[in-house]
Amino acid sequence: MNTHKTLIVGNWKMHFTIGESSMFIRKLEEQLKIPSSVEVVVAPTTLALQSVSLQLKHHRKFKLAAQNCFWRDFGAYTGEVSAHMLRGLTQYVIIGHSERRHAFGEIDKDIRLKVQAVVRNQMQPILCVGETAQERADGDTGFTLHDQVTAGLANITSEEMHRIVIAYEPVWAIGTGENAKTTDVAAAMKLIRKQVKDLFGKQASLDLRLLYGGSVDGANATQYLALPDVDGLLVGGASLKPEVFGDIIASAKS
Ligand code: PEP
């Protein structure tokens, strides 16, 4: 759909200490072959971003993402890390992951402000959207995606849209081994791209990178990457296994 490299993002979630993250990066560096047509991003714990960033500086084989951030730049917000603090450390920030929405009660307003904060601080948000099992069963997938995309991008201008990545991640498919049918993914992606076109114009919809996420592994990655509207993958569990992550990256080449 666009001329970007295929984007493969590994979300490590709350796995690996600082030392383990560093060792895992070394392992990935040794094992992974990254084709020139593929951009690989890893999202370690916030604590390890500084050390991993220094570790990667020499060759920049991967880019980095944070898994979350707060939207105010600074202030009395105990325990939070702002987008402003991540600036210069990561290129991407995952925003609105279903675990943030469902386990930490993030609502559309938080997500909208976070997307805006990431863009304001010159990074790229990976805005996660996706329906729950109940919404799917009720036939409401389209409405859910429409609402989440509209709300998440409400503070963004057409000129800023080139920074936006959207990950379609059906909630019921995350970490369950129950990955979505390609026909359903194709329909959801088409809908999201059309919505972006309606909101921001044709160029924004062409520039937009759309990722699929939800129980992606070495065996099923190819089928999603073959879909016309899919520009890459957001990978959770499988990104913690270097061989499997390597297989997914290899699939992205073809
Ligand atoms: C995720 O964390 O975004 C994800 C898609 O996880 P998994 O690949 O394990 O389903």
Description:
This protein is an alpha/beta fold and 254 residues long. Helices cover 41% and strands 15% of the residues. The chain has an eight-stranded parallel β-barrel with strand order 1-2-3-4-5-6-7-8, surrounded by five helices. The protein has a single domain, classed as Aldolase class I (TIM Barrel), CATH 3.20.20. α1 packs parallel to α2 (49-56) and α7 packs parallel to α8 (182-200). It has helices at 18-31, 49-56, 83-86, 98-103, 108-120, 133-137, 141-152, 182-200, 202-207, 221-225, 242-253; strands spanning 6-11, 38-43, 63-66, 92-95, 124-129, 165-168, 209-213, 232-235. β7 (209-213), α10 (221-225) and β8 form a beta-alpha-beta unit. Bound molecules: phosphoenolpyruvate. The site of phosphoenolpyruvate has 14 residues, from β8.
Question: How many separate domains?
Answer: 1
Morphology: globular
| Rg, alpha carbons | 17 Å
- DSSP summary, beta strand count: 8
Kindly report the average pLDDT value: 95
Class based on secondary structure composition and strand pairing: alpha/beta
What fold name stands as the CATH topology?
A: TIM Barrel
Keywords:
alpha/beta; 8-stranded parallel barrel; 41% helix; globular; binds phosphoenolpyruvate
How do you describe this structure in short?
This protein is α/β, with parallel strands linked by helices.
Set down the secondary structure blueprint.
Blueprint: E1 6-11, H1 18-31, E2 38-43, H2 49-56, E3 63-66, H3 83-86, E4 92-95, H4 98-103, H5 108-120, E5 124-129, H6 133-137, H7 141-152, E6 165-168, H8 182-200, H9 202-207, E7 209-213, H10 221-225, E8 232-235, H11 242-253
Parallel strand pairs: 1-2, 1-8, 2-3, 3-4, 4-5, 5-6, 6-7, 7-8
Helix pairs in contact: 1-2, 7-8
Bound molecules: phosphoenolpyruvate (PEP).
The site of phosphoenolpyruvate has 14 residues, from strand 8.
